[in-house]
């Protein structure tokens, strides 16, 4: 799950509850996310603007119907594919947000005495 909040500059964080897996699994996922994010930001050309947003990647446990409930058996390629989809979704949402006209703040003036 991906939460995005407009911000003056780019910040990124992640939330991994214990239900995701053991400490080893959670640390592996955080390391993979950092590596993936570094490569994404490095691959952006000068013309691509880094999104001005605060992003929080929130990991969730697997459904009870899955064979294993923790993410210990997750492969790196599958992890990268899911992040690619989330990043593409983020890009579309930010682009729509920037295209939407921003409301003009009205300033109410007090009558002169």
Structure description:
With 113 residues, the chain is α+β, with helices and mostly antiparallel strands. The chain has one domain (2-90): Ribosomal Protein S5, domain 2 (2-Layer Sandwich). Helices cover 40% and strands 14% of the residues. It has two helices and three strands. Strands 1-3-2 form a three-stranded mixed sheet, with no helix packed on it. Strand 2 (11-15), helix 1 (23-43) and strand 3 (53-58) form a beta-alpha-beta unit. The chain starts with a strand and ends in a 14-residue tail after the last helix. 6% of the residues are buried.
Cα shape: elongated
Compute the gyration radius: what is it?
19 Å
Helix and strand composition category: alpha+beta
Spans with pLDDT under 50 lasting ≥5 residues? none
Spatial arrangement of strands, main beta sheet = 1-3-2
Number of domains as seen in the coordinates: 1
- In whole angstroms, how far apart are the ends? 55 Å
Output the CATH class name: Alpha Beta
Q: H/E series, N to C?
A: EEHEH
Instruction: Report the helical percentage.
Output: 25-40%
CATH topology: Ribosomal Protein S5, domain 2
Count of helix runs? 2
Instruction: Tell how many strands the DSSP assignment holds.
Output: 3
Question: Major β-sheet, in short?
Answer: 3 strands, mixed
